[in-house]
Amino acid sequence: MTHRRTAILHGGFKPVNGEQKDNTADGNPAPAILYTNGAGANYQNCVVRNNKLVAAANIGQKWANNGGLVSNAVRLIRVDVSNFFAGSGPLPVEIERIFGKSAPDDPVDQVFHYGWPAVATNANGDIVVGSVRTRETIFPEQRASVLFAGDSALRPSVSIRRGLDMAVDGHYHMAGAAADPVTNAVYLAQEYPVSGNRRVHITKMLGTNRPDVIPLSLTAPSTLARGATYSASLTVMNQGDAAMPAFKARLHLSTDDTISAFDASLASFSIRSVAPGETAVVPVSIAIPRTTAAGPYYIGARLDIETSALEHSETNNANPFLRAGRGNIAATVQ
User: Fold this and answer.
1) What is the rounded end-to-end Cα distance, in angstroms, of the chain?
2) I need a surface site. Which of 15, 78, 140, 172 has the fewest CB within 10 A?
3) How many CA atoms lie within 13 A of 191 on its CB side?
């Protein structure tokens, strides 16, 4: 295992002790770049994309006109690691930004605390930082800041979530950030409590908007006779962030709880356009073929069978749930 040591943060940074390691043959690998004492910063997480390492940290910062007091702020860096395995010189720091004094809608004479950052970057090179902001007079609030590729400064941060539930028991640690490789969106995850239970708030930043329809629920008789026709009702939801145009769907009868195009067709029908977040209830008439063998079955839907639109996920157009029946309903054919 080769170890190469260097002071890696130069340029606008106070020099920082660090190690640059190649641990690919180590059964217990250490981080590729280890930030140690000297920075006055607590690095929360980092990501590497296109030979660029992007990291965010908690730091203490003295702002002008704040009486010499130190507030919590966020340090964002981008390091060029394209020559990580060549030579032993310092790795260039391309971006250093420290932010957290205030948001555009804050009073000019007030300084806020920003911390617990999570960072991710998409294939375009856009960087999104999620952080938690607070002050003595406000509840903790989740905010997001964006540094677009080619920009020299962060765009003004935007509010994602605020309110009393962010403050209960102090559970407001930023959970993480991740980029979608397909749409170039960046998703931020934030823990918060509700009635003593912890939940995670997911926020999508940037990226392409797409629909995402799923079969939400299905009602039909639990006992079916061969050769008979029955009334059923299918509820679908567009959980995406773009409208779903009118599309075609099909109900199937399957011998197991996984619906596929190879299962017997019970009905084919059209569904109107569905707006983001909207549900649509569709009455369906199903006919049980006379040739169907008696026994236990599942009835389930496949949506957008002719691919009317590109969705966030095509997989969840059928069998959308990780639970018994996968969202399909059990029935018995007699």
Assistant:
1) 68
2) 15
3) 15
